[in-house]
Amino acid sequence: MAKSFRPARIALAVASAFPLCALANPAARVEFTAGEVRATGADGSSRVLARGAQVGSGDTIDTGSGRAQMRFTDGALVSLQPQTQFRIDQYAFAGKPAEDRGFFSLIKGGLRTITGLVGKGNRDAYKLTTSVATIGIRGTEYSVAYGNSINVTTGDGAIDVCNGGGCLTVTDGQSAYVADQNTPPVIIEVKTDLPPPPPSNAGMVTPPPVDETFLVSENRGEGGGLDVLNGFAGGLTTGDGFYVFGQYTDQYGGYGGQILLSGASAEFSGSTLVRATQGGADYTAVSVAESHQDGIVGWGRWASAQCLVCNTGPLTDVHYIVGRPSTDLAGLTGMVGNYSLSGHTLPTTSSGITGGAVTGMMIVDFSSYSMLVNMNVNVSTITFGLQGTGSVSAGGAVFGGGFTSCSNCGANWSGDFSGFFAGPAGARAGMLYNFNSDTAKGTVNGAAVFTQTSLSQPSL
């Protein structure tokens, strides 16, 4: 039986480790940095960026000899190379194509990006500007290197490269070269050369962790959803003994439900969970909206799914987590684990809205089987700040709890979370969360994954 919650050990740690909503309207969250990466605001103030930091309109990011990766609130990913300066000129995402904006400048250096929802419904809403050409998108992934000229390669979709000499459409697998602002862009055979991260002993620059979602690879289709790529090496594979937790809320007033499978058989196609079975329950993906995994846990969202034998109809927006549960948590008595959010699905609402960025942290006391959770969830221009407490099942890997406060939720709201630990010594915590309020325009659902950053015995 779970012991009572004891907040004294960890309350101060939460306040210092997780400041809520550092920017009023953040454009992106920093997924990782290597070396000293700085941001200079429109007012000239400079700050060092680290994982979890937020950047917004007017910020210029300078990687120096390091690297950085950012996830924008529309789901876009931008990976900046060493010696790169990248400015967020104007950014706004509300899920409204007529109002969304994503205007950026590459001052120097190189980047790779997988675009998000901004620009999908209105191509004029997105552009990347340099002094010699401007790049627009048609739903894509591309790389660009810029010095005095531009080399660009499209990995998926298409881009329009335009300058004073004219416009050129660069499609899947093609590369282009732009000599200067008045010379027309031309197709070339040479791919854009963005070197891989150097070895970890090469000075200040170290490779990013291998569990970064961007490194696993993902592309976006015309509708802005994530296209799953097969061939993720070293990931979860088809087999037995999995925990599969899922939740869904029927849109437009339905009740929805949960999926709670333990000791289940899980079937994967590449990196994607496509089916989970246990006893009479048989859940199968019909359409996959997004899929991720880091080799220990997987998480994603089925846009639609069906359950054979179950007494349910079609399921919509099923957020899930999957993995084999930790079996050694009993040996962590006397230890406190700190966790930071390392992956998430785009939250969805029962009114049909798809949200954006999610940040969070978790502190777990394995002696009292108690936990504190803090999260920021962006939905339709509103960032909801959630704080909650929970408990871990004694002798097991499952946890659950409720949110005790929510900024921007209004007067009438409620929310809870549940999940399980996976990997050795609880290396990962996979969580499903939901909350509802008038300002959220219904019930918000999502999946989140937390990576253990430290495990120590607290000082008395």
Topology:
Elements: H1 11-17, E1 28-34, E2 37-40, E3 46-49, E4 54-55, E5 60-62, E6 67-72, E7 77-80, E8 85-92, E9 101-114, E10 126-129, E11 134-137, E12 141-146, E13 150-156, E14 158-163, E15 166-171, E16 175-178, E17 186-188, H2 213-216, E18 219-220, E19 226-227, E20 239-248, E21 257-269, E22 272-278, E23 281-293, E24 297-308, E25 315-323, E26 336-344, E27 348-349, E28 358-365, E29 370-379, E30 382-392, E31 398-407, E32 413-422, E33 428-437, E34 442-456
Descriptive report:
This protein is mainly beta. It folds into two domains: 22-226, Sandwich (Jelly Rolls), CATH 2.60.120.1440; 238-460, no CATH class. Helices cover 2% and strands 53% of the residues. The strands form four sheets. It has a 17-stranded mixed β-sheet that branches. An eight-stranded antiparallel β-barrel has the order 26-28-29-30-31-32-33-34. Strand 10 and strand 11 form a beta hairpin. The model is unreliable at 1-22, 197-234 and 251-255 (pLDDT under 50).
Core attributes:
460 residues; mainly beta; Jelly Rolls; 2 domains; 17-stranded mixed beta sheet; 8-stranded antiparallel β-barrel; 34 strands; disordered N terminus
Summarize the structure.
The protein has 460 residues and is mostly beta strands. It has helices spanning 11-17, 213-216, and strands at residues 28-34, 37-40, 46-49, 54-55, 60-62, 67-72, 77-80, 85-92, 101-114, 126-129, 134-137, 141-146, 150-156, 158-163, 166-171, 175-178, 186-188, 219-220, 226-227, 239-248, 257-269, 272-278, 281-293, 297-308, 315-323, 336-344, 348-349, 358-365, 370-379, 382-392, 398-407, 413-422, 428-437, 442-456. It comes from Methyloversatilis universalis (strain ATCC BAA-1314 / DSM 25237 / JCM 13912 / CCUG 52030 / FAM5).
